[in-house]
Design a protein that fits this description.
There is one protein chain. This protein has a single domain, classed as Alpha-Beta Complex (Inosine-uridine Nucleoside N-ribohydrolase, Chain A), CATH 3.90.245.10. It is built from 13 helices and 13 strands. The strands form 3 sheets. It has an 8-stranded mixed beta sheet, sandwiched between helices. It is globular.
């Protein structure tokens, strides 16, 4: 039996005026063409794992991932939610629906997990069209992970986590099922190319995505069988984006989320920096020289408070990003992607 959630596209209620749509299109006409030679590179297959509750950069990262998919640079295989807030998955569904992908596989963490308030998730879920009422109605994220991975070529999938590590901990602990005879760790080892993790602070610190559900962070990272690249707190902090989002049409859930979160003021871009690397830095892509990578090593997490340190190890399975390109230039690229409109905008 297939458990991946499928939905019919909901029809948007807000209709934009033709003049406004044309003005916006002219203002950003230069973003319509495929960027950075995307046609020469195969789309990067991405599973996006988000908490979509505490900070709003999750929204920005998912929006830019849809832009990259529309340009043929990424293939979104699924969106998984690692938070127990019932509005988080519904909010992600509204963004997927807005960008014309209402049928993307979605799943939500089950059992114990982190449940935090959100300044935007409930309002976006209630104000914009979509079919998922709450995360409680979504299937188990582990089952969705297993179905997606089982259907992909070996060593092909890039997992991007911009939230808690609960889903990945549970995936590794999963047993054989209808989708695959492999246990979770073996399935990951066979199908996953890279885990791109927004988490940690380097060389040391205490960052939210690691310290919330610290036990899951430790178990998932320590037992992960493929390479992990960390995009730390220090990478996204100086990259300030989202100011131009005020120019988006009012039927944009991306604009609305940032409006609710901080009144559309510029904001740090932790999750966007991780997502950009996963799509545009691999395989010699156009962002390959935006950051350097540390020598191999491993992140060490304190089980008491969730803080982390870094240990160099030539045989270590982890690396973390080091700043190289001017954050202001990266911000321009991220803003351009976050301003992307769906093909039917204004209809």
């Amino acid at each position: 039996m297939r458990h991946v959630w499928r939905r019919k596209r909901a029809v948007g209620t807000a209709v934009q005026g033709l003049a406004a749509a044309c003005a916006l299109a002219l203002g950003f006409a230069w973003i319509a063409a495929p960027a950075h030679g995307a046609a020469e590179r195969s789309p990067i297959p991405i599973i996006f794992d988000t908490d979509m509750e505490s900070d709003v950069d999750d929204v920005g990262a998912l929006a830019m991932l849809h832009a990259l998919a529309d340009r043929g640079e990424a293939e979104i295989l699924g969106v998984l939610v690692s938070a127990k807030n019932p509005h988080s998955a519904a909010c992600a569904d509204r963004i997927n629906t807005y960008f014309g992908r209402p049928d993307l596989p979605m799943g939500n963490v089950k059992g114990e997990g982190v449940d935090r308030d959100s300044r935007y998730a409930q309002q976006v879920a209630e104000e914009f069209p979509g079919d998922l009422a709450s995360g409680d109605e979504a299937p188990d994220a582990v089952d969705v992970y297993r179905e997606i991975l089982a259907g992909q070529p070996d060593e092909s999938v890039v997992i991007v986590t911009v939230g808690y590590k609960t889903n990945l901990r549970d995936l590794l602990a999963s047993g054989p099922c209808d989708h695959s005879d492999l246990d979770g760790r073996a399935l990951v080892a066979e199908k996953v190319r890279l885990w791109m993790c927004m988490g940690g602070q380097f060389p040391s610190g205490r960052e939210a995505n690691i310290r919330w559900d610290t036990a899951a962070s430790i178990e998932a990272i320590d037992d992960w069988p493929t390479e992990i690249i960390f995009s730390g707190w220090e990478i996204g902090t100086p990259i300030m984006t989202a100011g131009p989002l005020a120019e988006l049409p009012e039927d944009s859930p991306v604009r609305r989320a940032y409006q609710l979160f901080n009144g559309l003021e510029p904001h740090h871009s932790w999750d966007q920096a991780a997502t950009l690397y996963a799509v545009r830095a691999l395989d010699g892509g156009p962002a390959a020289d935006y950051w350097e990578l540390s020598p191999p090593g491993r992140i060490v997490i304190d089980p008491e408070d969730g803080s982390n340190t870094w240990e160099d190890d030539p045989d270590g399975p982890h690396r973390h990003k080091l700043e190289r390109r001017d954050p202001a230039l990266i911000a321009e690229e991220l803003n351009e992607l976050m301003m992307h409109l769906p093909e039917d905008a204004g209809e």
